[in-house]
Amino acid sequence: MKPTTITLEITGMHCTSCAINIDFDLEDRDGVTSVNTDYARQKSVVTFYPDKVTPKQLIECICKLGYTAIVQK
Questions:
Q1: How high does pLDDT run on average in the chain?
Q2: 33 close to 49: Cβ distance less than 8 angstroms
Q3: Looking at residue 31, what is its pLDDT?
Q4: Is 68 helix (H, G, I), strand (E, B) or coil?
Q5: Is the pTM value of this prediction over 0.85?
Q6: For 32, phi and psi rounded to 5 degrees?
Q7: Distance between CA 41 and CA 48 in Å, rounded?
Q8: What is the rounded average pLDDT of the residues 2-21?
């Protein structure tokens, strides 16, 4: 299966360290190949293997850090 890329809209980030924390946490997830979280845009672009991790699981991971996330349409 090929990797998929989605953009998540994130609320609750207060600084660039918040974006770094999100990147580190998502990168540790099995199936995630790359993450680029942008504090200024309040978005995270995530590339992952959908047979290993779902968008819902990625959002739950972000919520556990204290932020809110939804898939950008």
A1: 96
A2: yes
A3: 97
A4: strand
A5: yes
A6: -85, 125
A7: 21
A8: 96
DSSP one-letter code for 29: S
Dist CA 37 CA 65 (whole Å): 14
Task: Classify 24 as helix, strand or coil.
Answer: helix
Token pair in block for residue 68: 């809110």
Instruction: Give tens-digit pLDDT for 18-48.
Output: 999 999 999 999 999 999 999 999 999 999 9
Burial 23-62 (b: 16+ CB within 10 A, else e): bebbeeeebbeebebebeebbbebebeeeebebeebbebb
C-alpha 52: how far from its chain's center? 15
